[in-house]
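Anyone else keep sequences and C-alpha cells together like this?

Example one:
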Amino acid sequence: MGLSRDSLPADVMDQFRRGGVLPAHPLALDEQRRLDSVRQRALTRYYLDAGAHGLAVGVHTTQFGIRKVGLFEPVLKLAAETARDWRSGTTVLIAGVTGDTTQAVSEAEIALRHGYHAALVNLAGLRNRTEEEVLAHCRKVAKVMPVLGFALLPTVGGRHFSYRFWRGFSDIENVVGIKVATFDRYRTLEVVRAVADAQAAERITLYTGNDDHILLDLLTPFPVRQPNGEETVIRFRGGLLGHWSVWTRSAVRLFERTRTIPDGAPIPAELLALDARVTDCNAAIYDAAHDLRGCIPGCLEVLRRQGLLRGTWCLDPNERLSDGQVEEIDRVYRLYPELNDDAFVRSNLTRWLSDDGVKIPLFDEEEAQ
C-alpha cells in the first residue's frame, strides 16, 4: 500500500500508534560479502511469521555500508516486496535514512517509492552541525515522508542532543515517532519530557531502542508534570531494536505479556526480573564488554546458529565477533533457554528458504506439544 508524503495510511497509523515489535533487519551476505538474497528474504519471512508488527530496514543493524556498495535500494526493495508477498494485513515498514540533507532526502524518496511508511532519521553524519541546522535537516526530510527521530548513543555512531533539540523536533508536524536508544535514563527522560512539553504525545509514538532496559521501558509509565500541576503520562508503545532481530518469536511473546497489564496495575516481580535476564542476553549478543563493537556480528552469530544465515560476514571485514563473545553467547544460551526461539526456527526454516515456501504450513513445535 502506498502513502502520501505527509500521512500514514489509516491501518498503518493504527498499528504504529498501538505499538509493536519492529525488528531492525540484518544483512545476509555470502562468503564473498555479496548479498545473499535467498537468506535475506528468509529473514524477512521469519520476522513476519514470528509475529513482528513491522520491519526497520536500512538501519544500523542492516549495516550503513550498504550505501557504499549500491545495496541500499535493492535491500529496501527486497524486504518490502517480500513483506507484501508473504503476509496479508498490515506491516509497518520503516526505512533508515542517513547522510547529509541531499542524501537523506534522496533515500527517503527511494523508500517512499518502494512503499515504506516512515523514515528513521540517523543524524550521525551531522556531528559538526548545530542543533538548529540538524532540525532544519529533519524538516526537509519530513517534507518527503513521515519521520521518526533517532536518539542514538555515541558508542555506535550516534550523537547526544539536548532537551531543547528534542523539544524543537517534537514540533515538526510530520514527526510520527522517536526511537530512544540513548542507553541512558537521564537522556531517555529528556526525550520523554520534550514530547510531553510539546503536547505531542497523541501524535508522536515512542519506541524503545534501549537494549539495556527493553522490558522496563515497555512496563514503565513516565509521568511528566507541568507547571500547573497536571501530569501527562507517556509510555513506550513498542520497540525498534536490533536485539529483536534474534529470538523474535520469543520477543513477540514477551511484548504481548507487557500488553496484558492494565495501566496502574501492579507489575509482577517475575516480569521485572525478566528484564534483567533479557539484558544479560543482550550484553552477550551486543558485546557490551567491548563497547558494543561486536553487536552486529553477535546478532548474525545467533542467526547463523539457527540456520537462517550461513556466516557472520559483514561488509567491513574488520567488523567481527570480539574475543570471548562466542563464549558469552554460549553462556546465555545455557542459562536462558526459555528466551530463544530455536524450536520455532527449526520448524519453519525450510519454508522460509523455499521458493514455494508460502505453500508450506507454518508450524510451531512448542504450541504443538
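And example two:
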Amino acid sequence: MRADRLVATLLLMQARGRVTAAEIAGELEVSVATARRDLEALSAAGIPVYPQPGRGGGWSLLGGARTDLSGLSAGEAQALFLLVGPAAAASEEAKSALRKLVRALPQTFRADAEAAARATVLDPARWGEAGRERRRPPRAELLQGAVIRSRKVALTYVNAAGVRSERLVDPWGLVDKDDTWYLIAGTGDGRRTFRLDRIVDAEVTDRPAVRPDGFDAAAAWEQIVGELEERRSATWATVLVAHRHVPILRDLFGRHFHTDGQTEDGRARIRVAAPGPVYLATNLAGWGADLEVLEPPEVRAELARIGAELLARYGAARVPADRRD
C-alpha cells in the first residue's frame, strides 16, 4: 500500500541521511519509477525531502527531520499525515507507523497531525458494490485545511433537486468515494453530507468549528454508507433467470444481489434490491421474457404498467423485414 511505502521511505531516509531511488526500490521491492514517484510526492507535499544533484547524489531529508522526526514543522507534519492518513484505515501496518510518527512529534503538533490523518477517507467501491488513482477536486484542499484548523465554512450548495442554499457548517472530514468527494459536516440540523461537485462556493471563516469528541471520519463514513445502502435496498424481489445472465445481474446490482438456489427447470433463483418497486421494475423491464419476477406483487405491477405503456406507444409499429429473425 502506498501509505506504507511513504512512511517506510521517510524512515529509510531518516536512518541513512541520503538515499537513491534505486536503493529505495531495492529495499521496498518496488520499481525505480515507483520509488521516484513516492519521493516526488513527499517533496511536493511540503515534507523536507530534496533531490541532491550530481555524482553520488540522491534524496535527503534536510534540517532537524534528518535525525529526528520531531524536527518536522507543524505544516510538514500535517503534509505527511494528509498523504498517509487516508489509507491507514485499511492497513494495520500504516496505523502502526502513524502511531509511531505521532509519538515522535512534539506534543504541540500532535493534535493537528492526528486531525490531518483523520481528515480524509478513501472509499474506492462504487455505490452498491461490496468492494482505482483518485482525482482531487479543486475545493478538497481548502476544505481539508478547514477540517485540520477546525474553522467553520460558509457554503453555497445546490442539492440534487437543483435548490440553492447558503449554509454555515462545521467541517468534520472528507471522503473520496469512487472519484466523487463528500464533506461530512455538522449543521444546525445535525450531521450532513455534501457532495463537493455541488458546492458552488466555499469560504473558510475565522470562527472556530465544533467537532464531536473523538470524531473519526472513517467510522462516520461507514455509518453513512450503511444507512444509505439500507435505503437503497428497501425493496427486494425474487427473480428467476437463466444461469448465463447471473453474472450480468450481479454486476448490475452489486451488494444488492443474492443467489437463492435454482428451480426444477434449471433456472437460477436470485434476490435483487432497489430503493422501491419503480426502480426495480425499471432495471428489470429491459430483460423482457429472459427473466421472471415471482414477488413482490408491487414490482410485478410496475412491470405490467411499463409493458402496457410500451405496447400502447410501439405496439402498432411493424418490424422491417430485413430486421426480423
